[in-house]
Amino acid sequence: MTAVDEVEALAVDGLRWLLGVARETGDGGLGWPSRPSDATLAPMLYDGTAGIVPVLLEARRHFGDDAYGDAALRAARSLVVAVEECGDDSLYFGRTGMALVLRAVHRELGDGAAGAAAGRALARVRSRFDGTRWGELFELMGGNAGIGLGALALGDPELAVLALEPYARTAEATAAGVQWAHRPGVRARLHHVSHGTLGIVYGLAAVGAATGRTDLVDLARAGAADVVARDEAGPYGFLVPHSDPQHVPELVERYSYGWCHGPAGDAQVFRLLRNVLAEPAWQALADRCWHTVTHSGLPRRLRPGFWDNNARCCGTAGVLALACDRMAEQGDSPDFAGVLVEDLVARATRDADGARWSNVEHRATPGTLEPRTGWAMGNAGIVRELLRFVRLSESGDPHYAFAWPDQPVVRRLTLPPQATDPILPAGTDVTS
Prior knowledge:
By secondary structure, the protein is mostly helical. The chain contains 15 helices and 8 strands. The strands form 4 sheets. It has a two-stranded antiparallel sheet. Strands 3-4 form a two-stranded antiparallel ribbon. Strands 5-6 form a two-stranded antiparallel sheet. The protein starts with a helix and ends in a 37-residue tail after the last helix.
């Protein structure tokens, strides 16, 4: 296994590359493009400046180096402008995610202008609600579920409830529970976190539990039941197809294993349901997800298209986040986390500019893609998880400087045993 100090040094190189590709903005701020070759800056949480600020806050706290905090303050200046100009209100692609990051800069660094901008941004989000939705997307990343989670984290539970209530009247009954369309006019129904049922389940459960809305929690249970009924890897594993009928089958594989559309993300939802419902069967489902992840062959690239991504959304860093959650909550062995870290170390490009990672598109020529900067597909998400792995290894600290709203905060497990699973037939084996 790579020595922890070497992992930390790689993270420093990754930060150096990020700062090296930052661009000055007219207000004395800093901004980042999604890729260094892009002409325009990207402000969003998913793949732009708002997703880079959290790793700067992480680095400041981790190393005690105010230079990273200064960079975060400068980045916040560009976001103060961006929240006024943005045409999207969502968590990952728009104003809600930027507001969350600005509030974090206010909290961590005492920047009153960032805090005020976060408040204005959330008020703008509220004003743009049409009573059902904010735009075409209707899920966690680009729609109501993510906006509700963001509003809850920003201290506006009323807006969080307003965002989640429309799911009750738009739910589609299935044989096992309920599901939702992620956007109008699409026949496929997606099942996982980023654009599917489980992302909505996460929002319903989190907001419902925080506000005492048991109807929202019950709806979350029904959504989870639909997904669990689709499992094709039980009783020891857990693997649900990307969508039914398959969404754009010429581009999207039937099964994925990462955070966005696979068991690495499904397990995060089951962790939340375990916390909200105090039912150990949800932990059993999370364990089954982990069984499938660790037996899938990743992070080896077994065939073209199987595991071509290093990053937080769709790749190795997202699995590392769950591995570290399990180490902290359950005392899991660090062995598999070590395998993931070794792979990230091996796949990094390091030179005088620092370190960065390239993903692969096996259908393109050349297949090696330009390194990206942000949380979802690039350096920010990878470095953030490497720093956490180092802290957890050295001091046992699993916590982040900025808590992502769709990843449950770590807590040691104290659930009592339970004889039956609340969403599977009695007697079903749910051990991992």
